[in-house]
Design goal:
The chain contains three helices and six strands. By secondary structure, the chain is α+β, with helices and mostly antiparallel strands.
Length: 99
């Protein structure tokens, strides 16, 4: 099973616990490490960040693709996008980052 990490403002915690992670405009963005995921919100000035571990079972790997709309040269990491919502049962560890 593959694990990726999604970052969101911390105030989304209770909604995520109840409903999972909904698709945004282009999907659900994720990175390979918690710190990398947090970078995407920190650069937008968000200071209270929740990073959620997302479990990607083999049978759903086809729903994940690499996203090239985030600059690797700037962020120093790869970004991935899911084209389906992330159900609560696929969530793992959660970490709070306060900047």
């Amino acid at each position: 099973m593959r694990k990726l990490y999604h970052a969101t403002p911390y105030n989304n915690l209770y909604s995520i616990l109840e409903h999972g992670i909904n698709i945004g405009v282009d999907g659900v963005y994720m990175c390979e490490t918690p710190n990398d995921a947090a970078k995407f919100l920190a650069v937008r000035g968000i200071k209270d960040i929740l990073v959620v571990e997302v479990k990607i079972p083999k049978k759903l790997e086809y729903t994940i693709s690499e996203s090239f709309d985030h600059s690797y040269a700037f962020f120093k990491c790869r970004a991935f996008v899911s084209n389906i919502p992330i159900e609560p049962n696929r969530l793992g560890n959660m970490t709070r980052y306060q900047i």
